[in-house]
Design goal:
Helix content: 40-55%
Strand content: 15-25%
Shape: globular
Structural class: alpha/beta
Low-confidence stretches: none
Radius of gyration: 20 Å
Number of strands: 15
Largest sheet: 7 strands, mixed
Strand order of the largest sheet: 1-4-5-15-10-11-14
Mean pLDDT: 94
């Protein structure tokens, strides 16, 4: 009888993170200071990040040691299992073999603690007292709240208002871990007040919440900023996911033909797929697919340009696929994956055609999620469901072409706090929305010229 789960022992936990910057086809374009329009240096980032994370952000070393104290905490849930989705395969009548890396087993229910624990650790080591951050659907806020609790740090979370209202249980979880949570935009920051003055009923966006969190950190000496996606050091910490997956596929005597992950900013996708990129660059035939919503089609419709990471233009300008820093995603969008920009590392790989991207409306995504829940038993987060939809589509292609491919996806989080979205889908109240071209043009009109 074949194993359904491939489980590594704690002794097999990766001891180093993989840094893809050592193997890129070309170096990343440098981040630009929005005021001087010159490349930024460590001194520009020091007010909001600890120096060790700044070093990781720019490092060109292929491997970076994971501290023992972090490995001890990782062992609370890592290594995470790799599952063979046999019941889904049977339902689809596909010859494809479908695997999913189950990151929902973490205490916060997603992949996010892999970097939250690391960021809290490095901040604590440098004497920081409090971390300020943003969160969209609430997975990142939950993870950082957990991490701050472990390292006795205060935690302030600016949660996108529409999610704050749609997902109160995420807020309650953050508060249980000890965080203070505010619906963004707030009246607590200049950037929040500016948004509310223009639109008192603003649903918020990650760009707005980032502005508030960065402003909070920059104006308090004992506080630093923490980001859950996009940045190089965040994806670096997430590569533990892909490194474990490589070991597990070797045990299963499998070589992946297709790798799939959902993308908002890019952390779970990058962490899962980047350890496989060197093989792809060397010519191995691996299809690597980034999946996003049609309501926030950054990779599939955005240009590859320098842009700000936030609405208030506090952050450095980064070269990335973007819908424009002023972009506000529609409030009807039930999942996360709401960010206007994609990680520079993910963006470069897409621009070089090393990876590819697809976008889906939310009703087909939720249909795939329900199919997965009814076959494999685990309720996916709406974000994760985007990857599941793509995996199902690829498995159906294999059925039609009679191909026995190995499909591996990152199951980035469970949907236990997303039941209100499932209720809308099951009751037929979930709307599909494709971002109109005029909305994209409107947001892109404010892009800086570099």
């Amino acid at each position: 009888m074949e194993d359904t789960k491939i489980v590594l022992s704690e002794k097999e936990l990766p001891q180093k993170w993989y840094n893809i910057q050592a193997d890129l086809p070309e170096p990343l374009a440098p981040p630009i200071n929005p005021k001087t329009k010159q490349p930024i240096g460590p001194q520009d980032l020091a007010p909001i990040f600890p120096m060790e994370l700044i070093k990781q952000e720019v490092s060109q070393e292929r491997w970076i040691e994971i501290p023992d104290e972090l490995l001890d905490i990782y062992k609370l849930w890592r290594p995470s299992p790799l599952h063979r989705a046999k019941r889904l395969e049977k339902y689809l009548k596909t010859p494809a073999r479908i695997y999913f890396k189950n990151e929902s087993v973490s205490p916060a229910g997603s992949h996010k603690p892999n970097t939250a624990i690391a960021q809290a650790y490095y901040n604590k080591k440098e004497g920081v007292k409090r971390l300020a951050t943003e969160t969209g659907a609430g997975q990142w806020g939950s993870a950082l709240s957990l991490a701050c609790n472990f390292f006795d740090l205060e935690c302030t979370v600016y949660m996108v208002k529409v999610s704050y209202d749609q997902k109160p249980y995420r807020k309650f979880l953050m508060q249980t871990y000890g965080a203070k949570v505010f619906a963004s935009p707030t009246n607590l920051t200049n950037s929040g007040r500016a948004v509310l003055k223009n639109d008192p009923n603003s649903p918020g966006s990650l760009g707005i919440a980032i502005s508030e969190a960065v402003e909070d950190a920059a104006t308090h000496d004992d506080t630093k900023y923490s980001l859950g996606s996009v940045l190089n050091h965040v994806i670096l910490h997430q590569t533990i996911v892909g490194l474990e997956t490589q070991k597990q596929l070797k045990i299963a005597d499998e070589k992946p033909d297709i790798l799939i992950g959902c993308v908002g900013g890019g952390s779970n996708f990058g962490g899962f797929t980047f350890p496989f990129i060197p093989e792809k660059i060397k010519g191995k035939d691996i299809k690597i697919i980034a999946v996003e919503p049609t309501s926030c089609p950054t990779l599939t419709k955005g240009p590859f340009r320098y842009d700000h990471g936030d609405v208030a233009k506090f952050t450095p300008l980064m070269m990335m696929y973007t819908l424009g820093h002023s972009f506000i995603p529609p409030a009807i969008h039930a999942g996360g994956l709401r960010y206007h920009g994609a990680a520079p590392l993910v963006s470069l790989l897409l621009n070089k055609k090393i990876i590819e991207a697809v976008a889906y409306p939310q009703n087909p995504v939720f249909e795939a999620a329900v199919t997965f829940a009814r076959t494999e038993g685990i309720l996916p987060a709406p974000e994760t469901a985007h990857a599941i939809k793509c995996a199902i589509d690829e498995a159906i292609k294999c059925r039609e072409k009679k191909e026995e491919k190995c499909i591996v996806m990152n199951f980035s989080g469970h949907g236990h706090f997303d039941l209100s979205a499932y209720d809308k889908y099951i009751s037929g109240q979930l709307e599909d929305y494709e971002l109109p071209e005029e909305k994209i043009k409107e947001a892109l009109s404010e892009l800086p010229e570099i």
